[in-house]
Amino acid sequence: MNKLICFAAIITIVGSCSKSSMPPPPKHGSCPKSSTPPPPTIESVTIGTQVWMLKNLDVSTYRNGDLIPKVTDQKFWVGLSTGAWCWYNNDSATYATTYGKLYNWYAVNDPRGLAPTGWHIPSDVEWTTLSTFLGGDAVAGGAMKETGISHWVTPNTGATNGSGFTGLPGGSRDNRGGFGFIENDGYWWSSTEFDATDAWSRYLGFYGSLLGRYSTTKQIGFSVRCLRD
In whole angstroms, what separates CA 32 from the centre of its chain? Predict the structure, then answer.
């Protein structure tokens, strides 16, 4: 009889230990927490009827996840007819955080999509809509430029940033593969083709309030700003 009592006690202890080692069942209606982080918040500014990204684009993949080639070699950049990006002067430590990436127009026009979901690269007409709302090309640039000389060279004429666009002088990479105009000028692509070799772009300079409109060789590396769909 004593043996039976001891054996029953052992079973009770083992069973109790096994039960306590298992996680409690989920409460009714609850779901396990996802380990996937939420998508980053994209800062934006509303100007008239348009919602613009507040910063230059800084992505290294197309919308479908395919990598956009990073091209540092000068000669290779010149020969491209497909999408690519680079940092200004190939120097991410100095320029990446402030100015974002420079893209050729082939990346802008790639059917896989350069802009994140819910956004797009502004067309030439959409850039004109922005300019018109700010009073036209002759003065719109002043309302779009960051004030002061923290990033722009002096005198940064006409800069008020009245629109909140906060345009910065990110410079460019030319069609010979060289870099120039950092802190002097900012350039942004449109999605609109001019002809087989050129596409429309916009420009801000340190010396005035102009928002310039130019057709530019597609191999050139410019900044990109996106519009909300």
Answer: 32
**CA gap 208, 184 in Å, rounded:** 11
Q: Mean pLDDT over all residues of the chain?
A: 88
Task: Report the interhelical angle of 137-144 vs 124-133 (nearest 10°).
Answer: 80
Residue 143 is assigned to a structural domain of this protein: yes
| Residues spanned by the domain of 101 | 45-228
pTM across the whole model: 0.83
pLDDT of residue 33: 43
Instruction: Return d(Cα 171, Cα 213) in angstroms, integer.
Output: 16
Identify whether 98 is part of a domain: yes
Which H, E and C letters describe the chain, residue by residue? CHHHHHHHHHHHHHHHHHHHCCCCCCCCCCCCCCCCCCCCCCCEEEECCEEEECCCCCCCECCCCCECCECCCHHHHHCCCCCCEECHHHCHHHHHHHHCCEECHHHHCCCCCCCCCCEECCCHHHHHHHHHHCCCHHHHHHHHECCCCCCCCCCCCCCCCCCCCCECCEEEECCCCCEEEECCEEEEEEEEECCCCEEEEEEEECCCCCEEEEEEECCCEEECCCEEC
- Residues in a beta bridge with 200: 215
Structure tokens at 57: 């684009």
Within-domain flag for 34: no
The more confidently predicted of residues 224 and 15 is: 224
State residue 172 phi and psi, 5-degree precision: -155, 170
Q: Is residue 219 part of a domain?
A: yes
Total structural domains in the chain?
1
